[in-house]
Amino acid sequence: MTTAPHRRLLRGQFRPIRLGYVPLNDCAPVVVATEQGWFERYDVEVHLSRELGWASIREKLIHGGLDAAVVPCGLPVVLQLGLNSLPCEMAVGLILSQHGSAITLTERLWSAGVRDAASLRSHAQVHRSRSPLHFGIGSTDSSHGHLLRKWYSSSGSHDINDVQIVVLPGSLMSGHLAAGHIDGFCASEPWNSVAVAQGHGWVPTTGAQLAPGHPDKVVAARADLVRNAPEEHARMLAALLEACRWCQEPVNAGPLATLLSNPRYLGIAPELIRSGLSGRFDHGHGRLALHPDLIQFDGNEMHDPQPAVAAWIIRHVIGEANVHRLTPEWLQRVFRRDLYQEAKQRVASTAGKAAALA
């Protein structure tokens, strides 16, 4: 594990926590915790760092430029193992969100008669020798590759070789779709809604439909933050739990979209963000559908990084090649239920004190 020479310790305290995120709808809790004063309420200083993509997040975590980040669910395991990078000891104390992504196809495929996975498979097989299909995903460490494979296999074909996968930042997906560089993508919101609104794509299905209950983003911290500043780390997680509850309330979808639209965060029109938050989702070509679980920020103990969640991530994101290295004891060092339970207790304690003063 690398250590940062510029680690800041003031009177035994690790301040501030540098928390990274990529501009997506599922960064909402970190924005809300900042703007609504939840970090301040829990007496923890957190500085947000907006990053273009996951490669930047990964490198900054490895080299100490960030102390923690909102990351795709598979990235902490990849960093802990040192797969294709320097190893970095990580701790996941919170599953931040479930679902939140969708699959978008180019308008050229709609014009060619594609409507679902089966018709896409037929199109791909006919045109394979001339021009294979290219699909974008935000990260190989996210659920997006699994969702693409699962959707494509629903056509009856398990040969994902019909499609070539490329990694692109979500914010660039619609532009590459319009330019013809890719034929589709799987990405987190709001970038599917952006492609639909710009007339560049349409959405055949969502991640929530393909894999109900799957983890999407987690809050991962460098292990030295947890060791050197356990109080600050626990307070940060507690503030994020409070923010998640606020984000989950349907009545807050409009204000949340407006907040995220600020140029400091996503910097796009609120209506494009709200489509992926409210559950009233525009698939394109006149199809509006209600998806109340399109993205989940709270409920049913979804935040607990329990063994079943780790097992899903290992099976569907990391892959079988490294399973022999991932013993239950090893996984418990990464997926830290104790950190979640401590944060949860802090929230309950704060709520109890507030009730007593009311």
Describe the structure.
- By secondary structure, the protein is of the alpha/beta class.
- It folds into two domains: 9-99 and 214-270 and 295-357, D-Maltodextrin-Binding Protein, domain 2; 101-210, D-Maltodextrin-Binding Protein, domain 2, CATH 3.40.190.10.
- It is 43% helix and 21% strand.
- It contains 17 helices and 15 strands.
- The chain has helices at 28-35, 38-41, 54-63, 75-81, 107-111, 117-127, 144-153, 173-179, 191-197, 207-210, 223-228, 230-248, 253-260, 270-278, 307-318, 328-334, 337-357; strands at residues 9-10, 13-14, 17-21, 46-50, 68-72, 90-99, 101-106, 133-137, 163-167, 184-188, 201-206, 215-222, 280-284, 287-290, 295-296.
- The strands form four sheets. It has a six-stranded mixed beta sheet, with helices on both faces.
- Strand 1 and strand 2 (13-14) form a beta hairpin.
- Helix 1 (28-35) crosses helix 12.
- The protein is globular, with a radius of gyration of 20 Å.
Question: Could you give a quick summary of the protein structure above?
Answer:
By secondary structure, the protein is an alpha/beta fold.
Determine the fraction of residues in helical runs and give it as a percent range. 40-55%
Strand order of the largest sheet: 4-3-5-12-6-15
Q: What would the average pLDDT be, to the nearest integer?
A: 91
Calculate Rg over CA atoms. Answer: 20 Å
